[in-house]
Amino acid sequence: MASLSESLIIEGVNAGDQSGISVSGIGDFNGDNISDLVIGSHQADPNGTSSGQAHVVFGKSLFPIDPETGQQYQPGQLIVEFNAGVTEAEIQAIATANGATSVENIIPSESSLAQDFAQWRILNFDLATDLVPIQNNLANNNQLNVSSFDYIVSINALPALPNDTDFNDLWGLHNTGQTGGTVDADIDAPEAWCKQKGDHDIVVAVIDTGIDYNHPDLASNMWINAGEIAGNGMDDDGNGYMDDIYGYDFHNTDSDPWDDHSHGTHVAGTISAEGNNNSGVIGVSPNVSLMALKSFSAGGFGSTSNIINSLQYAIDNGADVVNASFGGGGYNAAFDAMIGAANSAGVLFVAAAGNFNNDNDVTPFYPANYTQPNVISVAATDHNDNKAGFSHYGSTTVDLGAPGVNIRSTLPGNSYGYNSGTSMAAPYVSGAAALLLAEDPSLTPAQIITELMNNTDPVPGLSGITVSGGRLNVNEALMSVGPIGNNAPIINNNILQTGTWRLDVSVGDINNPPNDFQPPVFIDPDGDGMHYTATLLGGGPLPGWLSFSQDNAFNSDDDVIYFTGTPPASQTFPITIELTATDCWGASTNHIFSINQYIDGYGQGDVHFKTFDGRRYDMQDDGEFIFIQSSSGDWQIQTRQEPWVYNPTRASVNTAFATEMDGNTVIYDMDNPTNQKLQINGVNITLNSGQSYNVGNSIIERNSSNKYTFRYAGPD
To answer: Could you say which of 106, 244, 493, 710 would form a disulfide bridge with 666 (CB–CB 3.0 to 4.6 Å)?
Structure first.
């Protein structure tokens, strides 16, 4: 069979008396629009033991239309269900009497879990056969329960956006406003990953155009059929399909579900692109497995029967979640029933709501509008938490929203690109469901839907037009499900933390010498991430003149302890610190220790307690004035230098003055320099205008005005 290109359309061979059929393309082909090209394909036996139906290409005008629903359907095929008790011989007789050329079972083997479909068949006819009178005749046959057309379905994605470097941020996972959107208009993925990144035992089946299973961001997460031996031409595991390693291609009826379009690979990357591999993107659930079920052509179109077969494969081969980023065609009883079979098997069905800004409450859109309890329908939102302009909606039929505009993900050929559509929103929900199942594998589809729906972020753009009125928040849903058996961090007193941990205590506006300390190592038994907070406790023997107040425990930068008191001479006193390690679920462990703190001078003002990374330090903002008084009644200034070398220098006079901070410069403004004396470390210094004096690593000079300037000159 020839491959698709923009200039050559496929030729095909019918199993009947028509051979060498070829149909030219209509206009230009770009694979995105149904008016360009659709491909119908089916073959009777996935193991190739019968001739079946050929692959034939049709332009839109050649597709027949169901006169009752107005939906296009696959030429040459009907989907029927015979009543219980109708024998195989009777089925063949009815098929032959109605002009069918062959009959296929929907389930491929007796081991299939979908045994409720034992009486379902696909009847194949010559492509030119008018199926309307046959459909009417079969509908009145008392040996049949259901007879329906095989409706055409489309992946229905919006055109891809340019692969521009300005679009290289995954705003849907973590929105900082980097694309001009609203901060936190995202699913809170990093917060969720701190708790759970997925499990390879959880399988998400992607019914789509296939997956590039060699893509470096997808290869390690592909589902592998452990019961099959690749390339031996046998059905080793007896599931009805030979050599099905990564899944199956139901469009071309072979074992290679390679993506010849791009849509399926893009969807797969959003669900489970590998994370922390220094390459490309990361999926919502970066450790779950991806089952590739190709049901669509290189042009993005497929038949309902192919999708039914794909869903049956997912059920039989252990999928936990099915992603359905497609839609179209009318209601189909067999499709509906197979989704119900998936529910009975514990398989969640995630469906894209549609891309034509329609109200699904008024005009049903399938499969999103199927009412089986395992179906969750997903609208698309943009980076401002608005409903995407193209997205379908429905106050009773569309459940929640998820990011679906300008979504970057994987593309075939080791590349990446952008797409928009509810097709892009659905995999966010599929990935989120997989994370919940990784945390609690016992969850049923109905329970997953409840957790996802009850833990959305309410957004005005979805209020009143979706069931939940909100956009997906996977972290909140995960918090509601877990933790399952979470353990708090533990302390290993035999191992000290690496690097420099630094305590910086400022009393008033004076920065006192920092204390280095090495707390013990905290270990989280579950591998969860941890963050640290420090609290200054009041139980230690603080000096009698010094007291402080503190509202709550606090983090590194913004919180304040207020000290009051009149200090005596400089002194050292012990203080007690509580260091707390908290995991992502909120479980914590405390370590309390004491260190000696040197206090030199005191000033009225805010006091900050911090832990540091080795170079951060606390100073007043530029232009602020600081009033400092020592215990002797003289006025003094103390500076702290960087890097962390404590070598304080004091300049004092016998009356009040103010200081102004300016980077590494402190300016002293004396009231009356003529009558006041300047002391540097106890030595009287007289400086005329323009003269300077070296003090250790610093220089003090008098300028032409009534100011002395102190500049830090460099480290020891």
So the answer is: 710
